[in-house]
Amino acid sequence: MNSTQKPNPSQRRKARKLALQALYQWHIAEQPITQIEAEFLVDNDMSKVDQEYFSDVLRGVPRIKSELDEHISKHTDRAIDEMTPIELAILRMGTFEFMHRIDVPYKVIINEGVELSKSFGANEAHRFVNGVLDKLAQELRITEVKA
Asked: What residues does the NusB/RsmB/TIM44 domain cover (predicted)?
């Protein structure tokens, strides 16, 4: 994909799914994010993936993890270490997108987070993820939410 092409929703969705899996691996295995990214680029067919988005989220989340966790903690009564690694990765990705990917509408971020939690999370994870992302949107994208 050249830099003038806008990624289509399918490419972005695949990038999100791979970013979630990579962030999950980073959380569990505690390997360097650059090593995980290299493995994912080799092990997956990236021809139909928004690679720029994948790399941005994958590198960005670990870089500002503490800041992301602070925002998340304000909107849930669960401690960060009580969340499943999948819920936490989805919430960190969503929070990162709210803060640093203003090209992505907040409703898309919430919807994609809910869909990922339905696919990869525990039984009712999508309700939890939806509630937290909704509150985060009202904090981090207040102008967009009110519009």
From this structure: 13-137
